Amino acid sequence: MATTSDPYFEEVLTYLKEQRGFDFTGYKRASLLRRVQRRMSTLHVETYEDYLDYLQMHPEEFTPLFNTILINVTDFFRDPEAWDYFRAQVLPDLLKTKAEENIRVWSAGCASGQEAFTLAMVFADALGLDAFRERVKIYATDVDEEALAAARQATFTDREMSGVPEEMREKYFERNGQRYVFRKELRRSVIFGRNDLVQDAPMSHVDVLACRNTLMYFNAETQAQILQRLHFALRPDGILFLGNAEMLLSHASQFRPVEIKRRFFRKVANSRDRRTSAAPQISPYPRSDESQWGRLRQEALLSSAQAQIVLDADSCLALANQRASQLFGLSSHDVGRPIQDLEVSYRPLELRSPIDEAGREHRPVWVRGVSWMRRQGETLVLDIQVVPLLDETGSLLGTTVLFNDVTHYRRLQGELEYANRQLETAYEELQSTNEELETTNEELQSTVEELETTNEELQSTNEELETMNEELQSMNDELHVSNEVLRERQDEVDHLNRFMSAVLGSMSAGVVVVDRDLRITAWNSKAEDMWGVRADEAVGEHLLNLDIGLPVQELRPMIKRQIRGQGSDDEVVTVEAVNRRGRKVEVQVTVSPLSENGEEPGGAILVTDLLNQD
């Protein structure tokens, strides 16, 4: 079997990403390799190159492959101790903080929905049914469309309901035949949708985010990307609920532990989370003539000491103030010309790229420390800011480019750096004294890093074991279903065997059934009585090898014709035979083909009726 060093393995992952939008490159390679090879073994495909060809020729293979990779193992109230802590400690504090506000919950990687409905039951118990319907929205997402389709049905078997307490089962579910259905009026508060944690935009303004035993499938780099998205999704002070195989020891700047053992963490808010949008201020004083205000604004812009040019939505020059005209040699004749036709578009900097970026992303773009030697031999250092100009609907009106002359500042910065170097020289003796202390500190730091590395390795091992456990549980579920099907098929076969035995045993004639090789497959009780051979002695033996009073050699041509399908009807013949008591008897033998629905006969049936005996 191929390994992950095979370049075709990466080509398979790239093909899945390009054709179906599933990016598995961030999954742990060992786990991903096992699941892909499992699917290849099922198809008897040896190499990744052959499997890539198979995927291209058989698009229907995507579905079973994704079902194999995306292990959907979940249960109601999985890890009961963690859910007890959530109900007893986390939820009361949340409800106290939120008062009468709406609550948003996100179940990321929800699989077939048990976790999302568990959250619904817990919140409904805490708030009451009416308040739950009015205040709580639970968003449940996964990348597996088949799992989401099953989750939307909200129906579960007795086995899947084993983790739900009896009182909750009666309160929140209705019995429908052999399955349980989550109550419809509560089901409306749970919204299912597809979301790829690696590629898609996260939910926002979430109070509780449950992402349990999902991160463990990804490598460290992808985990960090996902955690950044989860951090963005949570409100300040929001709660993150992870699975028992996941930790956040290396992400203390984003999440702080609330209860490490049960895997509850709280978001660490940053400056971006605390930003507020200022409302436009309306002046209480009356304005003078609007045209006068316009002239005032224009003159203020033109006289600004900071060089500034304004472009319209088509990147044509609309305005340049006096400082910009002096620096870049612009005049009124340049107004209306495309920016790419002007020298300022590429000197002191290629401007078109930051202008396009600012217009595309609707955000200011900075380019700092641009050094520009003018024709007079003067060198300027500029910080350039490109700002998109938007109307009240967010549509792009144009762009303004600000050229901040920081030459003096940079000169002062250089002088400061020189002074710092002199200061560093003065502190060399002190530095020498501190070296021994720093050496000791480095040794301690090295020890701490070794411990952190060991902890990360243990965490990775734990995640891998948990992943393997999920896979084994998935395989166990599949085997359980297969065993149930086999048991049902065996019951059907046993019933048919009993039925056929009863039919053959009730016949008054001797019945013998042979296959195409004339080996006996059935021998009823009347045949035992007539010829003195028990069924267990006869079945499996060649008919011509049996030592019975029936002249089977005379019957052989008839049997062969019926087996070959050459007989037009059943053939009947009367022969003399000797019964099991040694008496001569006259027997009527009927030979019929053993076939079904016009197919080629698979054997023959011999029916022997006793006519008279001496």
The H-level CATH homologous superfamily of the largest domain, spelled out, is Vaccinia Virus protein VP39
- Identify the strand order in the major beta sheet: 6-2-1-7-8-10-9
Shape: elongated
State the CATH topology of the largest domain: Rossmann fold
Low-confidence stretches: 274-290
Distance between the first and last residues' Cα: 74 Å
Number of beta-strand segments: 20
What is the CATH class name of the largest domain? Alpha Beta
Instruction: Describe the largest sheet.
Output: 7 strands, mixed
**CATH arch. level architecture of the largest domain:** 3-Layer(aba) Sandwich
Strand fraction: 15-25%
What count of helical segments does DSSP give? 19
Structure commentary:
This protein has 614 residues and is an alpha+beta fold. It has 4 domains: 7-69, Chemotaxis Receptor Methyltransferase Cher, domain 1 (Orthogonal Bundle); 80-271, Rossmann fold (3-Layer(aba) Sandwich); 293-411, 2-Layer Sandwich (Beta-Lactamase), CATH 3.30.450.20; 507-613, Beta-Lactamase (2-Layer Sandwich), CATH 3.30.450. It has 19 helices and 20 strands. The chain has helices at 7-20, 29-43, 48-57, 62-69, 80-98, 114-127, 129-135, 145-153, 166-172, 184-187, 220-233, 290-302, 322-328, 352-361, 407-426, 428-506, 525-531, 535-538, 552-564; strands spanning 103-108, 136-142, 155-156, 173-176, 179-182, 190-194, 206-211, 234-242, 255-259, 264-267, 307-312, 317-320, 365-373, 379-390, 396-405, 510-515, 520-523, 571-578, 584-594, 603-613. A 7-stranded mixed beta sheet has the order 6-2-1-7-8-10-9. A 5-stranded antiparallel beta sheet has the order 12-11-15-14-13, with helices on both faces. A hairpin with a 4-residue loop joins strand 16 and strand 17. Helix 1 packs parallel to helix 3 (48-57), helix 2 (29-43) crosses helix 4 and helix 6 crosses helix 7. The chain starts with 6 loop residues before the first helix and ends with a strand.
